[in-house]
Automatic annotation (TrEMBL), chain A:
Chain segments annotated as transmembrane: 45-67, 122-148, 160-179, 191-212, 299-318
Keyword terms: Cell membrane, Membrane, Transmembrane, Transmembrane helix, Transport
Main location: membrane
Keyword Cell membrane on entry: yes
SUPFAM superfamilies, alphabetized: MetI-like (SSF161098)
Protein's UniProt keywords contain Membrane: yes
Protein location: Cell membrane
Protein name: ABC transporter permease
From TrEMBL, chain B:
Gene3D superfamilies the record matches: P-loop containing nucleotide triphosphate hydrolases (3.40.50.300)
SMART domains: AAA
Domain ABC transporter: 11-264
This protein's record includes keyword rRNA-binding: no
Protein name: ABC transporter ATP-binding protein
Membrane topology label: Peripheral membrane protein
Broad class of where this protein is predominantly found: membrane
Amino acid sequence: MTAPLHEPGATETALADIAADLPAKAIEGRSPGRIAWLRLRRDKVALAGGTVVVLLILVAVFAPQIVGLLGHPPDQLHEDQIDPNLGTPIHAFGGISRHFLFGVEPVNGRDLFSRVVYGARVSLLVAFLAAVVAVLLGTLFGIVAGYFGGWVDALVSRVMDLLLAFPQLLFIIALVSVVPDSLWGFTGSGVRMAVLIVVIGFFGWPYVGRIVRGQTLALREREYVEAARSLGAGRGYILFRELLPNLIAPITVYTTLMIPTNILTEAALSFLGAGVKPPTPSWGQMLSAAVTVFQADPMFMIIPGLAIFVTVLAFNLFGDGVRDALDPKGSR
Amino acid sequence: MTDESEVFLSVRDLKVHFPTDDGLVKAVDGLSFELARGRTLGIVGESGSGKSVTSLAVMGLHGVGQYGRGRARISGEIHLDGQELTGADPDSVRRLRGREMAMIFQDPLSSLHPYYTVGTQISEAYRVHHPVTKAAARTRAVELLGRVGIPQPDRRFDDYPHQFSGGMRQRVMIAMALVNNPDLLIADEPTTALDVTVQAQILDLIRDLQQEFGSAVIVITHDLGVVAELADDILVMYAGRCVERGPAERVFYTPQHPYTWGLLGSMPRFDRERSERLTPVRGAPPSLINVPSGCAFHPRCPHADLTGGASRSTVPELREVAERHFAACHLPVADRNRIWEASR
């Protein structure tokens, strides 16, 4: 290939011939996303977790249709299902029957199936949106702190330390009690959900921020970042086109593992009465109500407890699978 | 080194210092050189002699972590096509990067972004400086890939860096650096990470493209063989300073500095007997925090005694020994010629 470039030498032509003879498959390019998908597809446990996650999302999205088919409206009372003397369901196992798949609530006889289905809406919506808030804030501040360093980094890092040391549960409980009934154009349960999303997301971003900052510190010294700078790339390009693609793997992994944590936080807050307001069903709130009748009707506690357990487990298994799939060094 | 009128890049008394916890690292300490369009300058020296720091300073790339404490202190003047760079606004220097000056890095794998296809990377480099459509940028990128000798450039455009061999990746890097027709190309150890057989191809390619594009080239290397192949002029660096510079033939055939002798003596050559041992330069490169007094090379110099203590006490100045040939050494010129002739 020492011949002048404008007239291809013999070597070059020969190389081109060889390349042309190769079957196209041999040089097929796989994008990093495709490689991760192929790895994920081989991981049975993660696939099972992922399937449950997808089902739960479908359940939450199509809650009215599912309840219309298999249950009763969540706020409809069914006093005929309740033993008037004891206040417990008349059928065994919390009133489970052909018409009431998960049984009924003690005392007022509301359909537990439809309340669990609608509860999934609250849990997943709060958990997802809070994770989105946390990831957006964490990525932005983390990448800026890591890339610019110096006092920018010091400032962001101290704010993150401060937030991580903050007693967030107590803060949320205190905050919820002073939030007005209508805020930012939301009313009723909408206000509580918006507040939960903002607050859980706001206290969650430092976890993402720390990971992103650490990765950025390592990545900004990479030669390809320097090469991009040597070609005249600006700050925005470096941050979002050069650095961000390398951060997507850790961010994705952390997001899938943060969602179950958020579900638990939401359930805990609802349990403590700081979650969504009563007519709107939520799993934590049901658990809280079940505490008083636990001995008479244990199923009332087991059903929402199982819902939380299955959801969190599915997200965690799926998250672990995603992490393994995105880690090129993993060998499982 | 050339007439003032042709000078394209001029570096005057460049100093790059890094404040660290252990003290001030003087990575480059008073370096001057000039370069004309169409000429090639080879900068040679051991690891840590300040070669790469010099090139990054010219490119204005010492800015990552701009607000950090470890920030480089750069002084002196760098004129590129008449424009002063050291004191210039970082954003205007950024606009020059890629269009006026570009750089090829040592390791072609780590210099290409693993997430994007090579074609995307080349066309993005073009689109930073030219407001053209994606299709037009693609045409330009394919054209460049072909120019640097990648077979089937239209098909390889959509391949990822890991699908290329080391030599092919370096060709891609060269295509990326040349996509905007820069007037100055800095190649920082362009062949160090490559196989010997591929090295010659890449050097030929750089030379051919230089003739075609007429750009000024700086080749940074520790390998005298590389500059022998490419450079018109050679600058030998030691401990952040220039110890010798001049036309390549003169530096190779009548070197004036004991350090240059050491470099030439430690280079394997085919015209020598196999039984002759290579003569390495004694000792290790000096710390850039506590640079030895006087001539920085004196602790390692086998001829320091001949200067009557001057090399220990005073920093030698660069003096012109022949036309355009400078050396910074206290040894009398007669002694230098005698020692060099005797060692051949």
